[in-house]
Design a protein that fits this description.
It contains one helix and six strands; from the N terminus they run ββββαββ. The protein has 122 residues and is mainly beta. The protein has one domain: Nucleic acid-binding proteins (OB fold (Dihydrolipoamide Acetyltransferase, E2P)), CATH 2.40.50.140. Strands 1, 2, 3, 4, 5 and 6 form a six-stranded antiparallel beta sheet that branches.
């Protein structure tokens, strides 16, 4: 899936240790359908090296390609919107752009960092 919008919030990087080793994630909020009286918002996240690869900042207009997943934790269900590609709104990635990837973009989803012994819901 894909959505275009303006970044209105960037949360601090979260890190942890799971059964697959160290992990880190960062969440972002974008505002889309800006022409509506009450624009809509969506939070998505990036995992691992993709955080450093895209350098997303508040105020930027971006297009986010993402997958939606859901998981159960202690009888409660949680949605997860995981981005696998982020582009400047005009679709270009130039040398001056903060969106210059460190390596070619491949739509891979990292292994789940959840540890069955963890008491965290994410």
């Amino acid at each position: 899936m894909e959505i275009k919008g303006k970044v209105i919030a960037v949360t601090p990087v979260q890190t942890g240790e799971g059964r697959n080793g160290q992990w880190k994630k960062q969440e972002y909020v974008i505002e889309y359908d800006q022409n509506l009286q009450y624009p809509r918002k969506m939070m998505f996240n990036l995992w691992g090296d993709k955080i450093d690869q895209y350098h997303i900042q508040e105020g930027q207009m971006i297009t986010v390609s993402f997958d939606i997943d859901c998981r159960d934790y202690n009888g409660r269900w949680y949605n997860d919107i995981r981005a696998w590609k982020v582009e400047a709104d005009d679709g270009s990635i130039s040398a001056e752009s903060p969106f210059v990837p460190a390596s070619p973009i491949t739509p891979t989803i990292p292994a789940s960092p959840l540890d069955d012994t963890s008491d965290l819901p994410f």
